[in-house]
Structure prediction request, 249 residues.
Amino acid sequence: MARTALPVGLVTAMWQKARLVGRRVETASATTLVFEPEQWDGHLAGQHADIRLTADDGYQAVRSYSLAAPAEDGRVEFTIQRVHGGEVSGYLCDDLPEGAYAEIRGPVGGWFVWREADTRPVLLIAGGSGIVPLQSMIRRRRAVASRVPFRLLYSVRTPAEVIYADELARPPRGDDGVETTLLYTREAPTNTRRGTGRIGVADITAHGWPPEFEPACFVCGPAGFVETAAKILIALGHDSHRIKTERFG
Prediction:
C-alpha cells in the first residue's frame, strides 16, 4: 500500500541501499518485492518505510509503502499496487530488475501497529490494497504463535483482485485462528450468498467482534472506505479510542 512520504523530521532512520532479491506477482496490479537492506533491525506489524529511486540524471522520487511481513533473515517485503500513470509504482512492479538497488528509509510509524503483548481480540477491516499492513499483523501473529483471536473483513471489487488469495484461503499452518470474510463490491463468486455491495452495518455486525468484547480495530483502505467503516464501528458502539485508521489515495 502506498502512502504519502513523511517529512524528514518525522523519520528516525537514514537512507540505506537495499538490493531487490525477489518478487511475487499477487494480482494483475499488485506485486510483492523482497529487499535486502544493508542493515535492518526489525519493525512492528503495521509500520511502513520510504523507498527512493534515483535516475541517471539525478532526479529522485520517494514513495512510502506498508511493510507486508515481519523481517526475515534481514529481508523486508513490500506489496505494491501499480497505480495508473504512477512513475514509482509502475517501475517497481514492472521494471526494477532483481539484483538492482533502491534506497530504503524506515521503519516509520508507531500508532497503526499491532503488538503481540496486547491480548484483546483484533478486528481488521481492509479495502483493496489496504490489506497489506493488516496482513503483516496476521503474519506477525502467526510468527509468534499468538493465541489472540483475529477477524478480518476484506473488501475487494472482484475475486481476481484479492491480494494474498492463496494464503488467506489456506494459511501456511492450516487454521491459524484468523476468521476471514471476503466482501465483493462488483463481482462475486457464484457460491457467495452475500452477493455484491459496499461494506455495511450488516457485514460488520455479522463478521466483526461485538463492542462489549472491546476489540482493537484496525481499518485501512481508500479514504471513503475507511471513513464509512469507522463510522459504522462507532455507530455499533465501539470506542473510538480503540479504532485506528490508515487512509490512502
